[in-house]
C-alpha cells in the first residue's frame, strides 16, 4: 500500500478533511480486498487446470476402476462415477471463479472512482499507485 | 467524526482536524509528535501481523475440515448400498495399504490432545459442519478486524505525512522570511 502525502512539498498545503481521510481509508481497504481477490482467483484458476488435467487423464485411462483421492485416502471407484464427480467440481469451480471475477471488476471500478476523487483534490500530493 | 470505539482492544487512531492544534499536545514540536506517531504505527503493524498470522492458520484449517466432510459424506452416500468400498490408505510415508469395508455406521473423529471419539456418520457430519461454520464465522470476523486495523494504519500514516508536510512548509516559510529580512 502506498499512501503518502507528497513529501515533495510543492509549497501548496491542502487541507485534509475527515471526509478525505475516510476516502483514503476506504481506498486502503479496497486495495487489500483487491489483492485477496487476485490470490483467490489464481487459486481457482489452478484448480480449474488441475481438474481439466484429471479429466483428460481419465479419458485416456484404460482401467474401469480408478483411485480417487478423498481427503487422505484413495478410494477405488468406477470410472464414470469419478467422471461425474469431476464434472460437479468443475461446475462449482467455474461458478466461484465467475463470482470472484465479478467482484474484482466491482472493486476495480470503485478504486477508479476513488482515484478520481482523491487525485482531483490532492493532485500529485498523493500517490495511490502500487510501487 | 472519528468514533472512539474499540475493537479487540485496538484503539482508534483519531483523525487530526488541524495540524497546529494537534501539535500543541507535543509543545508544538513536530519531531516529538512524529516519533509518537511512528511508535503508534509500529504497534498497529505488529497487531496486523499477528492477526494476519491467525487468519492464515485458520484458513489452512478450513480445507482440512472440508476433506473430513467429504469422506463422511462419501461414507453416508455408500451406506446401505451393500457395496464394498476399497480404499488405499497411507500407513507410513509413501507406503500404502488397502482396506475394504462394508456398511459402516460410525467414524472416529480425532478431537485433538490424543483423543479420538467414535461418532455415527450423521453425528460426525453435524459436528464437522458446525466446526466449519464456526471457522467461517471467525474468519469473517477476522477479516473485519483486519479492515479496521487497516483503517487505523492508513489514518496514522496520513497523519504522519501531514505533520511532516506541515513542518517542511513551516521551515520554508521561516527561511523565506529570513531571506526577506537580509535583503
Structure characterization notes:
The complex is a heterodimer of chains A (131) and B (183). Chain A is mainly alpha-helical. Chain A has one domain: Helix Hairpins, CATH 1.10.287. Chain A is 66% helix and 9% strand. Chain A has helices at 18-60, 79-122; strands at residues 65-70, 73-78. Chain A has a two-stranded antiparallel sheet with strand order 1-2. In chain A, helix 1 (18-60) runs antiparallel to helix 2 (79-122). Residues 1-11 of chain A have low confidence and may be disordered. With 183 residues, chain B is an alpha+beta fold. Chain B has one domain: Helix Hairpins. Chain B is 63% helix and 15% strand. In chain B, strands 1-2 form a two-stranded antiparallel sheet. The mean pLDDT of chain B is 86.
CATH topology of chain B: Helix Hairpins
Strand and helix order of chain B: HHEEEEH
Number of helices of chain A: 2
Q: How many domain regions of chain B?
A: 1
Specify the structural class of chain B. alpha+beta
The main sheet of chain A orders its strands as 1-2
Describe the main β-sheet of chain A briefly.
2 strands, antiparallel
Q: Percent of residues of chain B in beta strands? A: 15-25%
Largest β sheet strand count, sense and barrel closure of chain B? 2 strands, antiparallel
Q: Give the integer mean of the pLDDT values of chain B.
A: 86
| Rg of chain A, alpha carbons | 24 Å
How many helix segments of chain B? 3
The strands making up the biggest β-sheet of chain B line up spatially as 1-2
> For this structure, what is the CATH class of chain B?
Mainly Alpha
Overall mean pLDDT of chain A stands at 85
| Second rung of CATH, namely the architecture of chain A | Orthogonal Bundle
Helical content of chain B stands at 55-70%
Terminal residue distance of chain B? 46 Å
**Most extensive contact:** A-B, 26 and 33 residues
* Class from helix and strand fractions of chain A: mainly alpha
Amino acid at each position: 500500500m502506498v499512501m503518502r502525502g507528497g513529501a515533495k512539498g510543492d509549497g501548496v498545503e491542502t487541507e485534509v478533511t475527515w471526509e478525505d481521510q475516510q476516502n483514503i481509508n476506504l481506498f486502503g481497504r479496497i486495495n487489500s480486498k483487491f489483492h485477496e481477490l487476485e490470490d483467490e482467483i489464481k487459486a481457482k484458476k489452478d484448480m480449474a487446470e488441475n481438474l481439466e488435467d484429471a479429466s483428460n487423464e481419465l479419458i485416456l485411462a484404460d482401467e474401469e476402476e480408478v483411485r480417487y483421492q478423498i481427503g487422505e485416502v484413495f478410494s477405488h471407484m468406477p470410472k464414470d462415477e469419478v467422471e461425474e464427480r469431476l464434472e460437479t467440481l468443475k461446475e462449482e469451480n467455474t461458478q466461484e471463479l465467475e463470482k470472484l471475477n465479478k467482484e474484482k471488476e466491482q472493486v476495480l471500478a470503485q478504486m477508479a472512482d476513488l482515484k478520481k476523487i482523491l487525485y482531483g483534490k490532492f493532485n500529485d500530493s498523493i500517490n495511490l499507485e502500487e510501487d | 467524526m472519528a468514533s472512539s470505539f474499540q475493537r479487540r482492544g485496538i484503539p482508534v487512531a483519531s483523525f487530526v482536524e488541524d495540524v497546529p492544534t494537534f501539535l500543541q499536545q507535543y509543545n508544538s514540536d513536530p519531531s516529538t509528535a512524529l516519533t509518537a506517531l511512528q511508535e503508534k504505527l509500529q504497534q498497529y503493524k505488529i497487531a496486523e501481523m499477528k492477526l494476519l498470522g491467525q487468519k492464515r492458520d485458520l484458513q489452512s484449517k478450513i480445507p482440512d475440515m472440508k476433506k473430513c466432510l467429504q469422506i463422511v459424506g462419501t461414507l453416508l452416500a455408500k451406506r446401505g448400498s451393500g457395496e464394498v468400498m476399497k480404499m488405499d490408505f497411507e500407513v507410513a510415508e509413501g507406503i500404502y495399504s488397502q482396506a475394504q469395508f462394508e456398511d459402516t455406521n460410525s467414524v472416529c473423529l480425532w478431537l485433538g490432545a490424543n483423543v479420538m471419539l467414535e461418532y455415527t456418520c450423521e453425528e460426525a457430519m453435524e459436528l464437522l459442519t458446525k466446526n466449519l461454520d464456526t471457522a467461517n464465522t471467525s474468519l469473517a470476523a477476522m477479516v473485519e478486524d483486519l479492515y479496521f486495523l487497516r483503517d487505523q494504519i492508513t489514518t496514522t500514516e496520513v497523519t504522519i505525512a501531514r505533520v511532516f508536510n506541515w513542518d517542511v512548509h513551516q521551515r520554508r516559510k521561516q527561511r523565506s522570511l529570513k531571506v526577506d529580512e537580509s535583503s
